[in-house]
Amino acid sequence: MKRILAVIQAGEESVTGVLAGEALRRAARETGRPLDVEIRTAQGTLNPLPADAPGEDEVLLLVGTGGQPDEALAARASRHLTLESVLADPGRAITDLDRPTDAVRPGAAPQAARPPRIVAVTSCPTGIAHTFMAAEGLQEAARQLGYPFRVETQGSVGAGNPLTEQEIADADVVVIAADREVDRGRFGGKRVYATGAKPAITGGAAVIAKALAEATVQPAAGSASAGASQSSGKGERAGPYKHLMTGVSFMLPFVVSGGLLIALAFALGGIHANDASSDGTLAHTLFTIGAKAGFALMVPALAGYIAFSVADRPGLAPGMIGGILAANLNAGFLGGIAAGFVAGYAVDGLNRLIQLPKTLQGLKPILILPLLGTLITGLLTVYAIGQPVAALMAFLTDWLRDMQGSSAILLGLILGAMSAFDMGGPVNKAGYAFSVGLIASAVYTPMAATMVAGMVPPLAAALATRLFHARFTAEEREAGATAAVLGLAFITEGAIPFAARDPLRVIPAMMAGSATAGAISMVAGVELKVPHGGIFVLPIPGAVTHLAAYVVALLAGTVVSAVLIGLLMRTPVRAEKMA
């Protein structure tokens, strides 16, 4: 077996060249072939090969067209491929070397390779901002690379531009850029690469390059390894945070609908809308639907979809059943989270442990795994998890309800700063998930603080573009109007473009304003019964208490951040100054 020597002429595409080299090394290891790779970039040569390569027991593979043409090297090469073809199928690039072919001569064109066809799915926990920003990032990258591309956005209202079966069948690779788990059952047999939404926003081209190099085959639905593949594979392995965000994203519709119905019930029937004396009235009926149906399903949905994220469909029933048990034991959303993870990891472990003959494999996902998973989750929830978590939840609920003065200020400052720290990232979502979960326990003040704090960064950026024109480019001033609309709708991500230019100054400025707004909201005792919507839910009777104080908190936080941004942000370097 001849040793493979590969020379990658990357030129200015150094990152792509390195990725192509890693793809070839991986393919060579999988086939047991010895391989050395030299990468020629505009910055220099990595791992140079001997000048007289290849030897008698070696074969030379030439990849790419970057840099100055090397006619002598091309004459010695056994095969000449493009970077794109190597990234699309590195295994074939290795195996094709064993097929008879004429060496590429000087002046000969590189072997033609059609551009890889890519389909993608983007999603985020709330299904609003990051979902579509990730789609735009991947679309623009594919356009610049010249690759055929289609993206499906799994937003808050379902799948937008859904992929067809034919598009999936024709695709060379599937990119999943999501901060929650996405059902991969329809991608069985396709090469799939999973990552978060943020890498697709900030570096779509790099995500596509890594997908072409590192994607792994998704097992067919119902196969023994399908469940394990749901939360594994190349890219970013799904961890507890991503599983939690999956549960939160599926829980949100229950919180929104239940909270709004409860708010309408109190608006129509007053504070006694849920009393037995009001039975039969429209207000009491609305309260029953919202509290005893919508809110009753919050914890089971949270637990069920955490388990679904970990173990795919077999984990759904054990997770939801564990969530119901946690709710009945008054363990609240903390108990639901615990039950969801117990169910998910128990089912995932059983799936790996239990090996059945091929003829009986179909029993695992519909009988064996749900039954054993439910048994384990139920027993642990009742006998081990429920009572301690219920006691912790009761303590937390009482402490939050009794908070006054400095305690309320501190929590408001913390939740506010978390909202602006990464604007839709893990820290922001952690504070948001905490606040949403407390709604099920009728603790509404943290949700109010979190939402007002999340509205501040984009509104402050928009106000700063009006107050401090010189600090912003013309494009940024135009983007200010869009940021204002996003801020009013509680889409914190609208401030990301402004923070990205000068993060060390802008992010602390935004955190100061958000912390101010959160603290004022908490001290004023503002309660918010719905987890999203921004100012558009404020006019709904009963949705928010102490509305005037809430508006003051929003205005104060916005002004604080806008002034700090104006004072701290660097003035952009303009073309006319550089001339």
Describe the structure in your own words.
Residues 101-112, 223-237 and 573-579 have low confidence and may be disordered. The radius of gyration is 28 Å and the shape is globular. The protein is α/β, with parallel strands linked by helices. The strands form 2 sheets. A 6-stranded mixed β-sheet has the order 8-7-6-9-10-11. It has 3 domains: 3-96, 3-Layer(aba) Sandwich (Rossmann fold), CATH 3.40.50.2300; 118-218, Rossmann fold; 240-568, no CATH class. Helix content is 58%, strand content 10%. The longest helix has 40 residues, at 363-402. The protein has 23 helices and 11 strands. Residues 118-213 form the PTS EIIB type-2 domain. InterPro entries: Bacterial_PTS_Sugar_Transport, PTS_EIIB-like_sf, PTS_EIIB_2, PTS_EIIB_2/3, PTS_EIIC_2, PTS_IIB_fruc, PTS_IIC_fruc. GO terms for molecular function: carbohydrate:proton symporter activity; kinase activity; protein-N(PI)-phosphohistidine-fructose phosphotransferase system transporter activity; protein-phosphocysteine-sugar phosphotransferase activity. It catalyses: D-fructose(out) + N(pros)-phospho-L-histidyl-[protein] = D-fructose 1-phosphate(in) + L-histidyl-[protein]. Its EC number is 2.7.1.202.
Instruction: Specify the overall morphology.
Output: globular
What's the gyration radius in Å?
28 Å
In percent, how much strand structure appears in the residues? 5-15%
The number of distinct structural domains comes to 3
Secondary-structure-derived class: alpha/beta
Amount of helix? 55-70%
**Mean of residue pLDDT values:** 82
| Count of DSSP strands | 11
Termini separation: 60 Å
The count of helical stretches stands at 23
- Detail the poorly predicted runs: 101-112, 223-237, 573-579
- Biggest sheet overview: 6 strands, mixed
Strand order of the largest sheet: 8-7-6-9-10-11
